[in-house]
Input
Amino acid sequence: MCPKGNQASRFVAIRSGFFHARFWAFFIRGHPWKGTIIAVSLPNGVTLALATTYGSALTVSSATNANPAVLTSTAHGLANGDFVEVTSGWSRANGRIFRVASVAANTFALEGFDTTSTTLFPTGSGVGSVRRISAWTQITQVLETTSSGGEAQFATYSFLEDDYDRQLPTTTSAQSMTLSIADDQTLAGFIALRNASNTRNATGLRATLPNSSIILYNGIFSMDETPSFTKNQVMAVSASYSLQGKPVRY
Output
């Protein structure tokens, strides 16, 4: 039951394996957060997997301005739920990984990708190709991941007659992630990371959260195979991951 009057109550629900806390806040009358639900999550249980096998490039002859975007590729052979790396004339699609939906014989949709703006996605410019990711290899023994970059950048200017500066937003800074992994060179994930680092090709990375939501990245790995040596701490190696486009979340 919800509390009455000026009583306050909080309810915390722990979801299986996810420690997903939902706080039901019932504050005194007039409080701006009265009845607000606040959801927070811990990363415990997240798994990371590296794209290790790609199919041949499938030509995309057209892409619609729609929500979601529908791509035409003759006899593509894709299935709903497949993941594809996109090469496109649309810069906001190029180099990103999407999940396939609404499959038909010669068309498929990029789930959740809104291209209705012809300013951001000029009509007729979305042609290119896609590659299906056909195999993933889990990176095990991950100790932590950190991220950097992605901050907004600005152009600062001032007119001669001004006594103050102005700013215009421009781009965001380059984004990267760093993975710290407990050292074991025999593990499949270690070997896959080393191979990706050696080739320096853009490689997909999938983060699966315990609530089944996912985050898809595409970037270039640089791995340092020299393990750390700190007394009473796990020996670890690190891999830097330079993102080539914005992550996609489902």
Observations:
- The two ends are 33 Å apart (CA to CA).
- Residues 109 and 250 are 14 Å apart (CA to CA).
- The helical segments are 188-199.
